[in-house]
Fold this sequence. Notes:
Layout: E1 3-8, E2 11-18, E3 21-24, H1 25-29, H2 36-41, H3 45-54, E4 59-60, E5 65-66, E6 76-80, H4 86-90, E7 101-105, E8 126-136, E9 152-163
Antiparallel strand pairs: 1-2, 1-5, 2-3, 3-4, 6-7, 8-9
Amino acid sequence: MRILSFAVGDYESFGAINGEGIVDLGRLLGEQYRTLGAILRGGELHRAMSLGASSKATIALDEIRYLPTIRDPEKIICIGINYGNRNEEYKDGGEAPKYPSVFMRTPGSLVGHGETIVRPPESEQLDYEGEIVLVIGTEGRRIAEADAWRHVAGLTLANEGTVRDW
């Protein structure tokens, strides 16, 4: 099931793609769950997915503007230099790091699919690349490797932009 956050005019919600349209889960689930993030924190993702699969779509995909998948994340943790042959690909002459780099993003630094990424006028080098995003749906700490996927709600894609000349 594909789930998204979207806007139609000034109205913002989240829903499930069912056929050629969207089931507006935000409207169906009422005041308790106003965002997809609230659904995850409330442990109701399976309920939302069932509702999305069993309900008729009421909004056409071509009517919406995509928003970041989780509009209200608790945190955004990014992992850089996150694959073994990265230095060979970049040919930067550096030694492979012992550990990947870890850095944070803010919710305001994300845009939805098809939205404009703004390059600060002070920069000449906005770098961008596609990223696979793990959306954590169940919190945990010191999670055993065998249990890790139980905490993942899903995957999404992101276009990560970085001002490289700063």
